[in-house]
């Protein structure tokens, strides 16, 4: 139900974005809330949802509880993959790589190999390597309905806008640039054509949109340190020094014993 309702919410925002919001990097401007309100909303939902996953993991003081929450969200991410909601997959993967969660070494060491394998597979799918090469290949082979990761296309548009002049050297409008922008928007539009047949479940939607349980970055990091404190450098240094000292004493004792044995009294 969680994966389906994530998809329901992602689709609702994606389908509301008109072509005009993708022009002129409107989502980066000071008046972005006016020029690109739906892109801003989708970005906010992405970030808030990732914080929800982070907050749920690090709010668990018990190690086994943290592992169970990681397993839960891994399963949700994999169902999102099956639903072709790649935005949802990336929302959860982003939470797993958040510094407050990623640093929980004791927790991650206890996560089962099968769950870690699933996480690795999902992270490889949505990796930004090669300009999201794996995700692009998957999207081209995927039948609708589908929710892409919008940030990938926003990066494409930014690259075109900033890397290509509006006018040619002869002062004419650069139609090649216009065609490149149109191609990206056309790709996005194809994902806005086929809706999912998912009914809204108010209880689950309210849970996903409840901002009351979200921690900010500082709260998350402090809570992370609380559940798994840093290994003290002083303690590590002290422990190493004690080990060296103990080894030195043992070596001296052994040497003294050998010398004593070699000069011992000869039996009559």
TrEMBL record:
Q: Which GO terms fall under biological process for this protein? A: Ras protein signal transduction
The protein's matches in InterPro entries, at most eight in alphabetical order, are given as: Ras-like_GEF, Ras_G-nucl-exch_fac_CS, Ras_GEF_dom_sf, RASGEF_cat_dom, RASGEF_cat_dom_sf
Q: Where is the Ras-GEF domain?
A: 1-230
Q: Name one Pfam family in it.
A: RasGEF
- Any one GO cellular component localisation term in the record: plasma membrane
Give the source's domain of life in one word: Eukaryota
Keyword set for this entry? Guanine-nucleotide releasing factor
Q: Which named protein is this?
A: Ras-GEF domain-containing protein
Q: Which ranges are annotated Basic and acidic residues under compositional bias?
A: 258-268
What's an example of a GO molecular-function annotation for this chain? guanyl-nucleotide exchange factor activity
Name the segments for region: Disordered.
249-268
């Amino acid at each position: 139900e969680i994966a389906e309702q994530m998809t329901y919410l992602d689709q609702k925002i994606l389908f509301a974005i008109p072509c005009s919001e993708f022009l002129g990097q409107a989502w980066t401007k000071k008046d972005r809330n006016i020029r690109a309100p739906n892109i801003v909303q989708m970005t906010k939902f992405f970030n808030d949802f990732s914080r929800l996953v982070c907050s749920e993991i690090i709010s668990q003081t018990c190690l086994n509880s943290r592992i169970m929450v990681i397993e839960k969200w891994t399963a949700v991410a994999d169902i999102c993959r099956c639903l072709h909601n790649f935005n949802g997959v990336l929302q959860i993967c982003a939470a797993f790589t958040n510094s407050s969660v990623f640093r929980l070494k004791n927790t991650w060491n206890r996560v089962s190999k099968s769950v870690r394998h699933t996480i690795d597979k999902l992270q490889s799918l949505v990796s930004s390597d090669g300009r999201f090469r794996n995700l692009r290949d998957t999207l081209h082979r995927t039948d609708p309905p589908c929710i892409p990761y919008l940030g990938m296309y926003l990066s494409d548009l930014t690259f075109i806008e900033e890397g290509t002049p509006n006018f040619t050297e002869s002062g004419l409008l650069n139609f090649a640039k216009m065609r490149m922008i149109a191609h990206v928007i056309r790709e996005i539009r194809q994902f806005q054509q086929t809706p999912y047949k998912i009914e809204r479940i108010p209880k689950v939607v309210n849970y996903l949109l409840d901002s009351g349980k979200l921690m900010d970055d500082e709260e998350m990091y402090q809570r992370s340190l609380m559940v798994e404190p840093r290994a003290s450098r002083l303690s590590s240094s002290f422990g190493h020094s004690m080990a060296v000292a103990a080894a030195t004493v043992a070596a001296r004792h052994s040497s003294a014993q050998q010398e004593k044995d070699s000069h011992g009294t000869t039996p009559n």
